[in-house]
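Q: I'm building a small set of examples for a reading group on sequence design. Run inverse folding on the following structure and report the sequence directly after it, with nothing in between.
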């Protein structure tokens, strides 16, 4: 068994997190770890993926989820330890790097030789089924690479499971790329024997970040760290990493989660658990609207959550405003307290489009039957991320009772970059279940009446030319 990885430490809080390729090891990066540690005074960490460093047969029972979960666990530990991280991945590790960059607030992401656009014969549909007859295939290395790899540690054969995992990763990437908001650098070879360099052009086009760079080296290596271009590669990566830390330091925008709550002791704990585990949420503020069921006691169990309590019941919109006033974050994530199934992945999916400035507001639509079946109603969902200036521009006449969401939708539609939405797999407790059939039905119709009033106000605004006069500051 070889050593468990690389862990070069400095006094800096900046770190490079390396993910090696399938059938490789932390030596896939050649001299890069020491180069970055010595030249930039960075922490450098490289984990050894499961099934590697022993014998190739140990990969037989391992799949995509095993590798992602391992890398994700290690990355989360570094983030929670206060590290600001740029992820660098080579080959399959580059796929994992992008997927993690779509989920966590990293400073930048670099992919080297990512197998995003496979060459013949790897792109033949179902070619991986030949693994029934032959599981291991000898790798091809150029003479120079063979010489440079003399002291590197890797499997000399490819495992057929690797092709299955690579194709699965590419499918997952299709839904993840747009959520990457950090600077990205894609590096490839002109004659990579596994994947086409044109793939990084398509990949970078989809990535949500506004800062994207692609570089293609003229050589035949799949792993460029073992080519004649390696020293230029080190310098390129070091320059990008230095710039990425500077850019993200200047662009860092905090996100405040604001949770208005009234008698939600049974469900608010689940909501706060999800918010507390979401790295892109910088602060959590619960505004308890004079609950009498011990909601505040549940909130106090969560360390770091700010609790504000209204002396008398003031209504949801008042609580939302009080939460905004208690924070200086430029991005607000409003979240109801009576949710089930909310997860960090859902929260990140709602916040990411606003962080990358694609839209001014993004709405999470719940999977309740009513919301999925009637879009105008669904768009009034309480889970939404928006910029502070959007909230401040909302006229005070919409900041009453249940009019807020309708007013925000109207505002975002006619000003700025608009809004977008997506259906996620979570749900809200029905009022009829929460309060009983009679009271729940009454409250639902009262809410519907107030929402109708909001639409009437919208109609009046449109008749005046959509000026949205009387904005609050």
């Amino acid at each position: 068994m070889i050593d468990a990885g690389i862990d070069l430490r400095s006094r800096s809080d900046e770190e490079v997190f390396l993910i090696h390729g399938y059938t490789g090891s932390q030596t896939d990066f050649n001299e890069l770890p020491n180069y970055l540690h010595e030249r930039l005074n960075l922490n450098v960490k490289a984990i050894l993926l499961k099934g590697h460093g022993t014998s190739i047969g140990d990969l037989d029972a391992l799949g995509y989820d095993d590798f992602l979960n391992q890398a994700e666990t290690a990355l989360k530990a570094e983030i929670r330890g206060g590290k600001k991280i740029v992820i660098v991945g080579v080959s399959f590790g580059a796929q994992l790097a992008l997927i993690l960059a779509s989920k966590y607030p990293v400073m930048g992401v670099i992919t080297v030789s990512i197998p995003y656009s496979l060459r013949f014969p790897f792109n033949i549909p179902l070619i991986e089924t030949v693994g029934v007859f032959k599981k291991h295939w000898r790798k091809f290395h150029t003479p120079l690479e063979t010489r440079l790899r003399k002291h590197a540690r890797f499997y000399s054969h490819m495992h057929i499971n690797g092709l299955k995992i690579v194709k699965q990763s590419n499918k997952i990437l299709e839904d993840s790329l747009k959520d990457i908001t950090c600077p990205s650098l894609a590096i490839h070879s002109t004659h990579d024997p596994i994947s086409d360099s044109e793939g990084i052009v398509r990949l970078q086009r989809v990535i949500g970040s506004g800062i994207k760079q692609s570089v293609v080296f003229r050589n035949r290596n799949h792993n460029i760290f073992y080519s004649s271009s390696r020293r230029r590669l080190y310098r390129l990566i070091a320059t990008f990493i230095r710039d990425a830390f500077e850019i993200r330091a200047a662009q860092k925008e905090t996100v405040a989660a604001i949770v208005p709550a009234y008698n939600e002791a049974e469900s608010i704990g689940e909501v706060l658990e999800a918010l507390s585990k979401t790295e892109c949420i910088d602060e959590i503020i619960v505004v308890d609207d004079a609950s009498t069921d011990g909601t505040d006691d549940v909130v106090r169990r969560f360390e770091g959550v700010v609790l504000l309590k209204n002396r008398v019941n003031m209504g949801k919109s008042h609580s939302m405003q009080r939460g905004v006033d208690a924070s200086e974050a430029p991005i607000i994530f409003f979240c109801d307290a009576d949710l089930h199934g909310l997860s960090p992945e859902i929260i990140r999916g709602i916040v990411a489009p606003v962080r990358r400035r694609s839209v001014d507001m993004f709405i999470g639509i719940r999977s309740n039957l009513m919301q999925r079946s009637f879009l105008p109603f669904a768009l009034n969902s309480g889970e939404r991320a928006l910029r502070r200036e959007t909230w401040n521009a909302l006229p005070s006449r919409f900041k009453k009772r249940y009019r807020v969401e309708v007013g925000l939708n109207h505002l975002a539609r006619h000003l700025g970059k608009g809004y977008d939405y997506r259906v996620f797999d979570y749900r809200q407790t029905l009022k009829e279940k929460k309060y009983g059939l009679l009271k729940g039905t009454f409250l639902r119709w009262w809410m519907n009446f107030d929402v109708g009033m909001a639409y009437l106000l919208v109609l009046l605004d449109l008749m005046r030319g959509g000026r949205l006069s009387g904005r609050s500051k």
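Residues 5-251 form a domain with the Rossmann fold fold (CATH 3.40.50.1820).
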